[in-house]
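Milestone M4 deliverable, item 7.
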Amino acid sequence: MLFSVYILGHIIAYLGSQLIEKVMDSLFGKASLVILRGTETNRDDFKKMMQQQIRLGISKHIEEASWFSSIVRFVCHLPILPAYIAIYLLKVFGFYRTRISQDVITAANGKVANAHIPEIKQGKEWFKSLEAVVMNTNPSATARMYNYLVISGLFRSVSIILLASAWFELIYTIMKYKGYNAPEGLLMFGNNGIYAQSISYIAVCVVYLFSLFSYLKFQRRYVEDAIFAFVYAKP
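Output delivered:
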């Protein structure tokens, strides 16, 4: 039993990395890159920039040779597509709004040469090196970062479970709309009918979005803590 749970956990984590992490990274960019963009723009410009980045990510999915994997990932996210469109139109990107200021990035760039880290700017592969320096020199910051990493991974796994649940909710909603005797949805609480099923479907989508936003937020906090620790740690 324990071994089965262990294997199942790895399967969920793998699916989460393929269907949640890679999709979000392809649309928004890595958290370290999003943070840099956030330090250079105000609130309104940041929202517009995120919309632009999403459009760019979608165009890359269409143009690049890995179209098959892109189609598979797109199909997997179909039940949540209306919610994604609403997020894009309403510019709900607060989960990626960073606490890092441009002054902090400037201070970090003043220390990178001595730490053998590339300059912290867009187009440079700097975060892995900075992360390694912090992990090898600041145990207390590493413990906090690890907590954020674990929480982020937990929400990523919950997101993939809720994404699968949304598929079932959508299928049940269509079945009830067509007049078939479908099983009860996850959040119908004993109620029957198409309206109760529709509400259950919407509720699962909302919970999924909460889990997804939490995953992205804690991913951002992990990167932010690494930068803060690098800048403000005592020699």
